[in-house]
Every structure is written in C-alpha cells, then in structure tokens.
C-alpha cells in the first residue's frame, strides 16, 4: 500500500450549530463559503455564538483527509504549523492518536481555529483565523520529511503561500511522488486562479473539486469542467453533492452515485471523499472502486456533526470496505 503525506493548515474546528442564518449576515459570511478573518473577528464570532451547541475537533482540510486515511490503515504523515498553546497540543495529540507521523512547527502565534457555523439545512460556513497555521514556510519543508511517501496531498487553502506550494511540489517530484490537490473553496479558487492554473499544469496528478470550485477554475458547467481539468492531470474528480461524483482519466469518464445517508452536517464531506478515494488509489484499485470508496466515507461523515468520526463508525466503514472488496 502506498504511503501518503499531507500538508495543510493545522486548525482546530469549533463546530457550532446555529438556529438560523442571521448570524452569517451579521458577520458578512457568505453561506457555504470559507472566509478568512482576523483574530478580533474570530473572537467576536465565537462570543456571539457561545449560546449554541459547540464542540472542538482538530481540523483543516488536508488534516481531515490524512486523519481519515490513517483511520483506514494507511501510513500517513502531516506537515503543518501550530501555536505553543493548549489548542496546539490538542491538535498534535489528536493526529498522533490516529497513528499519523506529525511534522509540526511550533510558533509564538495562537493555533488557528475554524469556526464552522452549521445551518439548520446542514450547510456549513467557516470563519477561519489561520493564526500559526499561515506561518508555515517553504523553508520548513525538510526534504527528509517526504522520504518514504508515495503521494503528496495538498489543500487549496495553501495557495496563498505559492512559494510553499511550489517548493512542496518540487520536492515531491524529485522524490517521484504523485501529487493530489483539493481546490478547497470556490472563493479561494476565484481569488488565486492564475496561481492555481500554474500549479495544476506544472505539477498535479490528481485534482479534487466540487461543482462550484470547478466552475470557478474553468468557467464551465460540470461535464465541460471535468473535460477541461482532465487535460492537465492524470485524474480529475468533480464532486456533485447529493448526486455523487464524476471521475475522468484519459478518455474514460465514470459516474459515481451517492451513498444513501441521512445528512446532518456536510462538514468534512469533501475531505473524507478524498480519504476514501486515495485509500483505494493507494491500493491500486480501479477508479470506479476509488470513487465508490470516496462516496462511502463522505456519506458516513455527513451523518454526524464535524469531520471526526468515532472508532465504531470507522469499524463500520472498514467492514463495508471488506464486503465491497
């Protein structure tokens, strides 16, 4: 089985169930988006929502995917940056407890947080203060960190530090690794479109996007976007929510149906889709099986609040995989 290394923003998610969307308007947070906020606004959002049910979980897009892969038994590593604080300890311990090899830089800034505001219809909106996470630099990427890994997984949020992304990709290519990239958020793609296109065309082998991200990247609808993205990479994946996903490699297009679920919170759906897909890819399964596994793990995570499933749910997933295989 291939080993997978992830690089991403090391964050602690503050999962918050809101009773309506008025709070989104109050803080100018477009529903369904990820908005970067400063420390002051992050604290204001937390204070304003303190009356709602909330829970903490280590998070960040790539960290969620790597955690899911580790729970499936894949040997994984994670590179990130955290603060010298309790939330930093929380993040590191949660990753290590899943069996992930952590390569974390400790900064004097606070550990980043992502306040996930979960609407009654299960859509989630993030107010993210990156804190120490954004201080990860290209100079922190020791090539030895990459040794022994076969796949590098990057989250699109890192594009704000293009030098970091490009350095990681260059090291990965020198190590003969495959590179997988998740676009992360449509508004991030829109704001950094030229940089995304350059990175994808020069380095990326596997692209994960949802419909909105694919449209932001190409200006096209789903099927045309799939064809367009696939020209620049080995495998293009577009997730279409409750309708499943589309996968293309070369001239072959595969439609994957959704896993039937009772949706409670969509947080982590895309991240865990990547976990399931890359688990199959790491075991050299065909792309249809990879997509079905992605649909399975994505479906399971949206039945709970947050992106961290307990061991019982993972055991259920692994039993389903054993039957499927």
Walkthrough of the structure:
About 40% of the residues lie in helices and about 25% in strands. It is α/β, with parallel strands linked by helices and about 325 residues long. It has a single domain (about 5-10, about 60-110, about 140-325), classed as UDP-N-acetylmuramoyl-L-alanine:D-glutamate ligase (3-Layer(aba) Sandwich). Helix 3 packs across helix 10, helix 8 crosses helix 9 and helix 10 (about 270-280) packs antiparallel against helix 11. The radius of gyration is 18 Å and the shape is globular. The mean pLDDT is about 95.
Question: Short description, anyone?
Answer:
The protein is an alpha/beta fold and 325 residues long. It has helices at 22-26, 39-48, 61-71, 86-97, 162-174, 186-191, 193-203, 211-218, 222-230, 269-282, 287-301, 311-324, and strands at 4-7, 11-17, 34-36, 54-59, 76-83, 101-107, 111-118, 124-131, 151-155, 178-182, 206-210, 235-239, 245-249, 252-256.
List the helices and strands and how they pair.
Blueprint lengths: L3 E4 L3 E7 L4 H5 L7 E3 L2 H10 L5 E6 L1 H11 L4 E8 L2 H12 L3 E7 L3 E8 L5 E8 L19 E5 L6 H13 L3 E5 L3 H6 L1 H11 L2 E5 H8 L3 H9 L4 E5 L5 E5 L2 E5 L12 H14 L4 H15 L9 H14 L1
Parallel strand pairs: 1-5, 1-9, 2-7, 3-8, 5-6, 9-10, 10-11, 11-12
Antiparallel strand pairs: 2-4, 7-8, 12-13, 13-14
